[in-house]
Each structure stands twice: as C-alpha cells, then as structure tokens.
C-alpha cells in the first residue's frame, strides 16, 4: 500500500474515534526510516488506546501491516509503527511538552527558550 492510501486510512480511523488536532508531516527529506509522521491528540488514556487500536484494525483491513505499538501501558503517548508512516497519539499535555511537530518540521525552539 502506498503512503498516500495509508495516510487516508489512518486519518479515517482517527477521525472515526474523534481524534483532534491531527497533523501530517512529511519527513522523507529528514530521515530514510519513514516518510510521514502523523500526530493526533486524544482527551483521555482510554481514547488514545481506542484510537491506536482502530488505526491498527483499519490498516490491517486495508491490507497494510502494523510493525509495532508502543506506550499501551500508560496510554499517555502511543506510537503505532506502520512502516512508511509513524502515528503518534498523545494527550494534549504530553504533546505540548514534547512538541514533535516543531521538532520534525525544523522549527523547534532552543532548550533555553522552553519553559
């Protein structure tokens, strides 16, 4: 499955369980490990786990592969590795703290500017 189709499946799966603040970042020029990162927010640990599960189910149903899932113990930040696309599902406080969007798009602040 190509990356564009995989992204469409992922976004549908996230929206189905009401994820919000979904960002798609093309990182192909930064790393050769994967092409895209998708970051989504959830309102509770239960929702992060449901979102990660729904992404896995929908990707497998569409013929894609799930390589690994990390973070299921706490549920504050789940990572779903789908090969060319990595999905990060995070609680808003965790997302704000790590600021992956700025990190991967090259717009991160210097550590001395963070509070």
From TrEMBL:
It is found in: Cytoplasm. One of its GO terms (molecular function) is ribosomal large subunit binding. It comes from Nitrosomonas supralitoralis. One of its GO terms (biological process) is negative regulation of translation. Interacts with ribosomal protein uL14 (rplN). This is Ribosomal silencing factor RsfS. The gene is rsfS. Functions as a ribosomal silencing factor. Interacts with ribosomal protein uL14 (rplN), blocking formation of intersubunit bridge B8. Prevents association of the 30S and 50S ribosomal subunits and the formation of functional ribosomes, thus repressing translation. GO terms for cellular component: cytoplasm. Belongs to the Iojap/RsfS family. Keywords: Cytoplasm, Repressor, Translation regulation.
């Amino acid at each position: 499955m190509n990356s564009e189709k995989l992204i469409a499946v992922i976004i549908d799966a996230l929206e189905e369980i009401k994820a919000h603040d979904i960002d798609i970042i093309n990182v192909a020029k930064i790393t050769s490990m994967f092409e895209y990162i998708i970051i989504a927010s959830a309102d509770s640990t239960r929702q992060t786990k449901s979102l990660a599960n729904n992404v896995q189910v929908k990707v497998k149903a569409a013929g894609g592969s799930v390589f690994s899932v990390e973070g299921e113990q706490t549920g504050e930040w789940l990572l779903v590795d789908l090969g060319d696309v990595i999905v990060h599902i995070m609680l808003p406080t965790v997302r704000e703290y790590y600021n992956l969007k700025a990190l991967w798009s090259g717009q991160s602040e210097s550590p001395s500017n963070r509070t």
